[in-house]
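=== RUN LOG ===
request id: a7f3
mode: sequence -> structure
chains: 1
length: 116
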Amino acid sequence: MDLTPFLLIGVALLLTIAIEIAVAIILGYKKKEELLVIFGVNLITNPIVNYFVMLLTQLAAYLFSIPLLLLFEIVVVIFEAKILSFVLKKGTKEMLILSIWMNGTSFLLGIILFWK
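=== RESULT ===
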């Protein structure tokens, strides 16, 4: 069994968490609870999205594209914003803006680091 895909998912997860927590801190979200929720929500969303990205590129590379990746990212942004808003008891708009910044930054850096 080739563990390379799972290693890549793990690396992507660690980088995403580091990037998104750094962005959150820069934007003023420094409380332990805020950072733990950001950490936790990424433990859910990041491996799922990266697994589907890898699966799609293996099964039907011709179907996979930046627009599809952006669609995944939009779903993640909305999902994470809703979870952050619910758990942290903050406004949906505020958490949507935070989620856009965090995911936008990690998305762009991911493209730079991993795109072949």
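=== NOTES ===
Residues 4-111 form one domain.
The chain has four helices and no strands.
=== END ===
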